[in-house]
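Protocol step 4 of 5: obtain the predicted structure for the target chain.
Materials: sequence only (see below). No template structures provided, no constraints applied. The aim of this step is simply to have a reference model before the mutagenesis design in step 5. Sequence pasted as it appears in the construct record:
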Amino acid sequence: SSRSRSPSPSLPSSETMMWRSARRTISRIARLEITSCPLLQQEVRSNSIKTFQSRNFHANRVNLSEEYLHSMRNIGISAHIDSGKTTLTERILFYTGRIAAIHEVRGKDGVGAKMDSMDLEREKGITIQSAATFCRWKDHEINIIDTPGHVDFTIEVERALRVLDGAVLVLCAVGGVQSQTNTVDRQMKRYGVPRIAFINKLDRAGANPWPVIKQIREKLNLNAAAMQFPIGVEDKIEGIVDLVEMKAAKFVGEFGEKVEYYDIPDKVMKECKEKRQELIENVANVDEALSEKFLVDEEPTAEELKAAIRRATLSLQFVPVMMGTAFKNKGVQLLLDGVLDYLPNPTQVKNTALDISKGEEPFEVKISSKEPLLALAFKLQESPFGQLTYLRIYQGKLSKGENILHVNANKKTKVPRIVRMHSNEMEDIDTAKAGEIVALFGIECATGDSFTDGSIKASMTSMHVPEAVMSLSIEPKQKTQLDKFSKALNRFTREDPTFRVGYDDETKQTIISGMGELHLQIYVERIKREYGVECEVGQPRVNYRESITKKADFDYQHKKQSGGQGQYGRVIGYIEPTESVMDEPEFDNMMIGNVISPSWMAAIEKGYKEQALQGPLTEHPVTGCRFVMTDGASHAVDSSELAFKIAAKNAFKQAVEKANPVILEP
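Step 4 output (structure tokens):
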């Protein structure tokens, strides 16, 4: 990863938990000692305040010349399918004044949600492409990327999280942690992205946020605690209690646009106090300054608690959990406040680039508009005006009409037009600065390419691209449309790194591969709609893998005499599983001496890896397997590369059958 950040926000190990339990026991004894001695109590409090003030001073240092960066947030909204991401984004845009009216997903009113701009998205009620927008909230600028929930479009989430500084993980108050929630969580951990969890759909029948928080802790292994408490659930939801400020909020007006604060009702006061104590304890476990206050049994102020939560969130040791119902217009404004209070600005995220002039030596990127330009193209999209390239500017600034260096192609290119995206709408700008997310027209490049102003030759590292899991054959119904068909495939493979196109020499068919059946169906439909080409497709073929589950020995001798020079090669050793079932086949030579010539060892490795492409169960590639040579034999005249290659193939076949082979699903 190009981001060198702290470890992912996970629950402590069992040893750490035992230590913390012991520490809490000691702290209770210490509190009794401290409270019984006023002088000691005063000393501890004095030291605690000094530590707290020192930490806050260092955390809040501001470079006044780059003030705009400190009031900026770059966030992504990610979740499992149908958790309410796009509905949430629609409310955010409405409350921040970016749109004048709220429209719902599926386009039932003939308009549809702002961030679902494709006809297919509005018809199916799903997000297919990530969409970027920006808004202002309380003098802060927020760049937002709304991402799809289906695993078929996982690359959209991957490239969004690669360039964002923070994220909102949306969960359903009924469904809780689901399959794609796990995938999104892994992606956030891969890029070290601090996140807020938002439990949505509190209005649904069966909604209960507390089991969801338990699942976040147990299934995602995250240190999480509630920041809010709902006053009622399902159709009885009245408002939300802020556990930091200890005040209740209700959302009035036709669309809940006005937030009114009032005293916490008596019926929930006891539970709110318990949940606030739980929040303080969870944060104190990972924040030293708050821990010191906790030790002396001193109640932190709202500002102190807020600062501790921010530190713990930015260091990836804590996940604040907020809640509401976007559809019923409750809790969204408080979530926006949480984005400003707890997620990082661009200067608080450590990014690493590679200096190509120094042999790809890593260096830390300085998020400043005064530094030389360094930007990453993270998404491509065709438009009526040509290729639209989404760009995250890490340092420096970019101006319309200037020449920039396309590092990967090593050529200068002119910037004809810069725009800021609001879903499918564009706003022309003349200059973009460090920290911003913009789009360019007229730039030919690929996803993951880097750009500089030419004064430095550096590159951001590329993002993780998963392997395709499903394939199907495709061809146009009319041969006269081959040209349009080829253009469509070329465009889609440029836009989407997980969409691959190949050709099967045996069947003479074009094969498209992707992340699932829905993924491929959407592209077949887009070829028809956007290029007017109707296609015939074959049955989907799942890209299974095979692996082994135990160690197995092999001893195979290949011997053939046909007059003249014969063929002879003997290989002895074993195969064993590697640490991960997805590891590529490995080869290891453990032989002592040169019983077999080194040139023949290369032939043995080649034979084994060729045979590993076709497993014994489904003829899919074998992964997670290591082929170890321990002995063998050769003949002065009859041994050859071909003989040992054949011996290795057959030895592998022989051993795999004894090693308990299994089929791996995507």
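Step 4 remarks: Residues 14-35 form the longest helix (22 residues). The domain at 470-538 is CATH 3.30.70.870 (Alpha-Beta Plaits).
Proceed to step 5.
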